[in-house]
Amino acid sequence: LSTTPTVFQQGAYAPNPQWRWMSSGGMDAVGDIAIGYSVSSPFLFPAIRVAGRTPADPAGTLEAETTVVDGAAPQLGSYRWGDYSAMSIDPADDCTFWYTTEYIARRKDGPNWNTRIASFKYPGCVAP
């Protein structure tokens, strides 16, 4: 039994010309993986999305992303972003993903982000 971690699979997720950053990931009890992140482009206000895969999906791929919340304004200035992004698995069932990060809810001067918390579960995950 090796105690040295090894890379099982890896890749970049960029299904369209938008920027994705400040990602966090997790895996549930049956091996479903979810990644949450901020997304933006010159034509898209900073928003929150998630993507994931089940063990049955081809290695190195993610299913289509889902929007958690659309942003409503641009980030103004050079304020910090994404310090509190986290994907966690609920210890009560080892199946529910909880994701939190920042988005822009309205235009204003100064730091203008808000925090959103989302939860979701893959239908194939059954608590052990």
Structure characterization notes:
By secondary structure, the protein is mainly β. The chain is 0% helix and 42% strand. It has strands at residues 19-27, 33-41, 44-53, 66-69, 86-89, 96-104, 113-121. Strand 2 (33-41) and strand 3 form a beta hairpin.
Please render the helix and strand layout as text.
Layout: E1 19-27, E2 33-41, E3 44-53, E4 66-69, E5 86-89, E6 96-104, E7 113-121
Antiparallel strand pairs: 1-2, 2-3, 3-4, 5-6, 6-7
* Beta strands, count: 7
- Total count of helical runs of at least 4 residues: 0
How large is the share of residues in beta strands? 35-45%
Over all CA atoms, what is the radius of gyration? 16 Å
SSE order in H/E notation? EEEEEEE
Gist?
With 128 residues, this protein is mostly beta strands. The protein is 0% helix and 42% strand. The chain is globular.
Keywords:
0% helix, 128 residues, three-stranded antiparallel beta sheet, four-stranded antiparallel beta sheet, 42% strand, mainly beta
